[in-house]
Amino acid sequence: MVNLDHYLKIAEELGIQLKQVDNTVALLDEGATVPFISRYRKEVTGSLDEVQVAGIRDRIQQLRDLEKRKEAVLKSIKEQGKLTDELANKIAAAETMAVLEDIYLPYKPKRRTKGTIAKEKGLEPLAAKLYEQEVGFDVTGFAATFLDAEKEVLTIDDALQGARDILAEWINEDATVRKKVRELFIEEGNFVCRVIPGKEEEAAKYRDYFEWTEPIKTAPSHRVLAMRRGEKELFLMLDTCPDEADALNLIERQVIKGDNPSSNQVKLAVKDSYKRLLKPSMETEVRLYSKKKADEEAIKVFAENLRQLLLAAPLGEKAVIAIDPGFRTGCKMVCLGPQGQFLEYETIFPNEPQRKVSHAASVILQWVKKHQVNAVAIGNGTAGRETEAFVKSIGLPEGVIVVMVNESGASIYSASEAAREEFPDFDLTVRGAVSIGRRLMDPLAELVKIDPKSIGVGQYQHDVDQTALKNSLDDTVMSCVNGVGVEVNTASKQLLTYVSGLGPALAQNIVQYRNEKGPFKSREEIKQVPRLGEKAYEQAAGFLRIRNGVNPLDSSAVHPERYELVNQMAKDLGCQVEQLLQDRSLGERISLQKYVSEEVGLPTLKDILEELSKHGRDPRETFELFAFQEGVNSMADLKVGMKLPGIVTNITKFGAFVDIGVHQDGLVHLSHLADRFINDPTDVVSVNQKVEVTVMEVDLSRKRIGLSMKSDPFAEKAVARKGTGRSSSTDRQREREPEGDLAAKLALLKGKFR
């Protein structure tokens, strides 16, 4: 059912028109995907992009969840016989789940509490009279009337204590009080972190948080998650609270009406309510709030890093030798054809201790000639640089390039069900070599086979909300896959899974149909795939490509529903569609206004014209060869002041990690990313970017490398860092955590670089 208030709220929040929200929600409710809506329904949405469409999708779901909760709350209160028009209006007006729960709290079924016990003793009238705080009211005398031995109200103090227990709960359940205390916690509260006594040595990695205070409002994501992790590991104690006096004063301003004996009783109840009920409740809420905020920031960083990694420039359809390097166990080497198909496998031993150099060189050169190899891909793990130096020394034919490939996650893929299904007869190392080679040829197609959390570009990925993380990463992968397009006749099941409208089951059906019937000859033939109906076809067709198919438009991003329109354009120009695709000058003669109709507007027509002009072109950047500094293969080769080429492998809120070819990434701290002050590392770097860095610090014992991208990194006058707190070593140690020894995987800065 359409809820106009929801649509108005979303339109206001996103700064778009009500009609855009209405139309987009209608498409989403019909089962349309974000990529499809943003690409092929621009006239309907007013050209909303993927971010805006996803924003509408997520917000409408939040509001609908809130509406469902309101219905449950109304039903519960009505069943209690306590629902009034005023209360119903308050519930209807609640804009957040927190506000709604505050309203519901007094009516929420409770376990037996101090307040309910006091009510059972008949002390509620005393509490109500005290709360009025009348001048001249005889507190002691009225309290004496409630003495009752059977109800265990033996003294006046017993009566007043019970009344205060009731008052404390009333104060705790007051929606206005809770709202103001919540705001105080968020706006004025602090994280107060301390080490658990006796665990100083064991908790050394968290030493920067042993005595740490920081405003909740400004604490960055990575520090919040670090403190919470230290607490979870039982090394740290973490409190989240404002100054107690400020909190008590705020509550008293809401409930204290005078200065008399009754008011004094209410003040005592305020103190009890805050310490026993409100403070723990608000601490829980604020911890959840700060965690959610930190999660959102961390997930945003992760998603953007993943996007940049997935959209890395592909080498393309070239024959490749891929090597998973090693010392004692040798280098696992495979040869892959232009479409990534497995051709040959062998283990060579060019490194210590065997040093079978002649045999290794002979095999590589033989394969290069036999399979017309264009590139040699070498994993950047153990023995990677040594193997690279060897391959470059054997006299490869001109034009054969040698490329170091980031192998993060290759071991995860090699042990996966997908790898076992594809290569059931090969061991993990062979599958890993295949993954390295394919990652060079087409990073997107290969990386979708790996759980994004294992690729090594995250920030506290194991600490954030796993459902929110998965949803965000799925959105990112789907956006990248559909933005590039998928060749349906060569795509893996994993890649097809992310195509708009498909999913795992239909992806499997497509692969099975392809295996049984042979390559698809047209997009129209895709409709023959079992269980792939009209709706799925509509959502997927524009993102699926068929090279050399019956219809030349099948290899483009033009949706089949617009083929007739393109045919008309070609007819009006007196040419064939093939000519229109090959001759860009023909497209320039098309007057788009001529083809505007009720169904097709200028946004779609412009997309079609753009697609015709770049038919078949990969939207990703062109592949550029990169090489590390020769002779710098390990940390022992590094010297302070060296300038080296590197590749950005991960970006966090406090800086960027850079691979300089020594099996240990270095850290360029936020303060050393640029000569000018920056708040966000993504303002100056991106994942896979080639950069030049200066070595600032080398700590061999702890495997830490400090780097700088400043033009004069050793200048005494450093750019002043803004914000609160400092970047702790714990942040830097724990920010990125691929499997294995963390110390061996992170580069840290300390001292003057903090």
Number of helical runs? 30
- Lateral arrangement of strands in the main beta sheet: 6-5-4-7-8
Which homologous superfamily in CATH is the superfamily of the domain at 160-302? Tex N-terminal region-like
CATH topology grouping of the domain at 160-302? Tex N-terminal region-like
Largest sheet: 5 strands, mixed
CATH architecture of the domain at 160-302: Orthogonal Bundle
Q: Residue ranges: pLDDT <50 for 5 or more in a row? A: 717-754
Rounded average pLDDT: 90
Distance between the termini: 54 Å
Output the CATH class name of the domain at 160-302. Answer: Mainly Alpha
Task: Indicate the proportion of strand residues.
Answer: 5-15%
Helix content: 40-55%
Radius of gyration: 33 Å
Could you tell me the number of beta strands?
15
Chain oligomer state: single chain
Task: List the keywords.
754 residues; alpha/beta; Arc Repressor Mutant, subunit A; Tex N-terminal region-like; Nucleotidyltransferase, domain 5; five-stranded mixed barrel; 30 helices; 15 strands; 46% helix; disordered C terminus
Give a structural overview.
The two termini are 54 Å apart. Among the domains are: 104 residues, Orthogonal Bundle (Arc Repressor Mutant, subunit A), CATH 1.10.10; 143 residues, Orthogonal Bundle (Tex N-terminal region-like), CATH 1.10.3500; 122 residues, YqgF/RNase H-like domain (Nucleotidyltransferase, domain 5, 2-Layer Sandwich); 119 residues, OB fold (Dihydrolipoamide Acetyltransferase, E2P) (Beta Barrel). Helix 3 packs across helix 5 and helix 11 runs parallel beside helix 15. With 754 residues, the chain is α/β, with parallel strands linked by helices. The chain is built from 30 helices and 15 strands. The strands form four sheets. Strands 6-5-4-7-8 form a five-stranded mixed β-sheet, with helices on both faces.
